[in-house]
Amino acid sequence: MDIEYLIKALDSEHETKCPICGSEMLIAESDDGGIYWKCQQGDYSRNKNQPYPTDGILRCDKCNSPYVFSMINQPRWVCTANPKHYHQLKKNDLKLPKMAALLSPEEKMKVQKYFQQHTAENE
Questions:
Q1: For residues 97 and 99, what is the distance between their CA atoms, to the nearest angstrom?
Q2: Would you list the domain boundaries of the chain?
Q3: Residue 97 and residue 57: Cα distance in Å, rounded?
Q4: Edge-to-edge strand list for the sheet holding 67-71
Q5: Measured torsion, CA atoms of residues 47, 50, 55, 58, in degrees rounded to the nearest 10
Q6: What is the pLDDT of residues 80-96, one digit of tens each?
Q7: What is the pLDDT of residues 29-83, one digit of tens each?
């Protein structure tokens, strides 16, 4: 556990509030032993290294640049400063209006199909 990080984060009002629904963000332990934030209502989650979307925009956890949408084999956010930096798109990322606005209607349909197929495969 990164106690110094936790103390600093808990003093920050935006870190403890879900950017989608405003519910409390909880600290959880990941399978690999690190910690991450998850919304009490299940609307949002992020690892501790990922910047909080204070302006409603998800940013690269390596260089803090904004993302653009890309879909090769799966939907992902690709860093505008370095395309080698990317983050897999989560279904709930699109609940952030500014992130959803980055996709065209056709791209939104492709993402919906991807998540429908992915959910069906896991059932």
A1: 5
A2: 1-49, 51-123
A3: 9
A4: 67-71, 75-79, 86-88
A5: -100
A6: 999 999 999 999 999 99
A7: 888 878 888 999 999 998 888 888 989 999 999 999 999 999 988 999 999 999 9
Rg value, the chain, Cα? 15
- Measured CA to CA, the distance from residue 37 to residue 53 in angstroms comes to 13
SS (H, E, C) the chain: CCHHHHHHHHCCCHHHECCCCCCEEEEEECCCCCEEEEECCCCCEEECCCCCCCCCCCECCCCCCEEEEEECCCEEEEECCCCCCEEECCHHHHHCHHHHCCCCHHHHHHHHHHHHHHHHHHC
- 37 forms beta bridges with 27, 46
Give the tokens for residue 80. Answer: 């505008």
More confident residue, 9 or 107: 107
Q: What pLDDT is stored for residue 11 in this prediction?
A: 75
Mean pLDDT for the stretch of residues 19-32? 88
Judge whether 25 and 15 are in contact, CB under 8 Å. yes
Mean pLDDT of the chain: 88
